[in-house]
Design goal:
Length: 455
């Protein structure tokens, strides 16, 4: 099994925290810039913007047809905010000096928690005042010229709302994923097995009239998302600020988890109770799980992370998730995030039931005690096995998932391979799609070996 590079620790995708305003809102009487259409790369020599001899090839199952042999259709306009089959047009206007400062933070190990005032037009509608800020670290390293952008409509105006009443969204440049598909596919898989994950779509983004190309539109976990999921949104939310701990106690003791997890000043005791129970008897742990956790969302995330080899997720890195504590039931619901280092990225393919240690994780000495216990106890082992089987014979089934990958590759090809910020060449994009297909085919064999063939 190939080993991860020494640079992998730098690829940790950190979630941004709240901050302050740097620039005043701009005048609202200017027309939002219009992003004109564009064509695919002209030839295999990089005449569309990249030098060298990378060949432009069709996506899908290993085809090497030159891009000029096919007229790639433009993506249709999105019909809703989270329409995975359509493209939004997003135009942002921000003071030029503020934008240069914004870009200077991209990909830096540490950066100020700063919100920048801006205006935003969504799908041609009149511009409104918003706040923008960066997020992520690993996802920004490969191309700092194309910034991730978090949008918040109610940072300056508590009554401010975006499309469909949203408060916040993330525009992600997919810096670690030339296929553009990994993170969206993971979120779909989690929802297919009754877990919680952001909804998503696509956008072409302009900043101050400059075309920044294709972005993933990702739902941001906030009160609007919780209202959609649970019908109410007054519960507490918590997010681990340090990787590698996950759901188990650090060396300083279980009480230290209240410092590792940030969030509302509510009762973080449920997290401590959950982590403390990992060293107790099966009966005691099962009782705590029943009282404190939405088991469906926990098992769904573990199963999907293992199947897609998420090297920066809950099991391998104790990272990229948050809890929402339902104010009605009091239970902790796990919500996944940051799932772009998946489907064999860096060649790390998990052992299904022990997804930690090199080359699966950059966390030294990490063993996920929660997953170990869930697999050891007969009652939860049966439930976890059911999740794996739902994936194996349902959403992750080879024919179904490969068809979805090919459809997305076809739809995205024009946008993904003609990006004005030259994030990935056509050959890189095509290889990434082929690698994604290869992973799915081989992972099906792993699932069949572990759980038997599908009926």
């Amino acid at each position: 099994m190939p080993m991860l590079t020494k640079a992998l620790p730098l690829l940790l995708a950190c979630l941004a925290c709240a901050g302050c305003v740097l620039a005043a809102p701009m005048d609202q009487d200017d027309d939002a810039p219009v992003i004109q259409g564009r064509v695919a790369w002209a030839d295999a020599t990089g005449a569309g913007g990249v030098g060298g001899s990378d060949a432009a090839a069709t996506p899908g199952a290993g085809s090497t047809t030159d891009a000029t042999a096919k007229v790639w259709p433009p993506m249709p306009a999105a019909k809703s905010v989270f329409d995975p089959e359509g493209l939004h047009q997003v135009a942002i206007k921000v003071e030029p000096a503020s934008w240069q400062t914004y870009l200077s933070y991209v990909g830096k190990p540490s950066k100020p928690a700063t919100w920048f005032a801006a205006e935003l037009s969504w799908d041609g509608k009149p511009p409104v005042a918003v706040a923008i800020r960066g997020f992520g670290k690993g996802s920004q390293i490969s191309n700092p010229g194309k910034a991730n952008i978090r949008i918040k409509w109610d940072e300056f105006d508590p009554q401010g709302k975006g499309p469909d009443g949203l408060h916040s969204l993330r525009l992600k440049a997919a810096g670690q994923d030339p296929s553009w598909q990994r993170e969206p596919l993971v979120y779909d898989l989690i929802r297919e097995v009754d877990g919680h994950a952001p909804r998503w779509s696509w956008a072409r983004v302009a900043v101050n009239g400059v075309d920044y190309g294709l972005y993933q539109v990702l739902e941001h976990p906030d009160k609007r998302m919780y209202k959609h999921l649970f019908g109410h949104n007054d519960g507490n939310e918590y997010e681990p600020q340090k990787a590698c701990h996950g759901l188990q106690c650090p060396k300083e003791g279980c009480a230290a988890l209240t410092k590792i997890y940030s969030g509302d000043p509510g009762d973080r005791g449920a997290i401590v109770v959950l982590a403390s129970a990992l060293t107790r008897t099966d009966a005691e742990l099962l009782e705590v799980l029943d009282k404190t956790v939405d088991l469906d969302s926990l098992l769904a995330t573990y199963a999907v992370d293992s199947v897609v080899s998420n090297i920066d997720g809950l099991a391998a890195a104790g990272h990229n998730f948050r809890f929402y504590q339902d104010e009605v039931s009091g239970k902790l619901h796990l919500i996944a995030s940051g799932a772009d280092l998946t489907f064999g990225k860096f060649g790390a393919w998990y052992e299904l039931l022990t997804p930690w240690g090199q080359p699966n994780s950059w966390c030294a000495d990490r063993v996920d005690l929660m997953l170990q216990r869930l697999w050891q106890m007969p009652a939860t082992k049966a439930l976890l096995t059911k999740k794996f089987r739902q994936l194996q014979c349902g959403a992750f089934a080879q024919g179904k998932l490969l068809a979805r990958i090919d459809a997305l590759a076809e739809m995205l090809y024009l946008e993904a391979t003609s990006d004005p910020k030259v994030l990935h060449t056509p050959a890189q994009h095509t290889k990434a799609v082929a690698d994604l297909r290869d992973y799915v085919e081989k992972r099906q064999a792993t699932l069949a070996a572990q759980f038997g063939p599908c009926p």
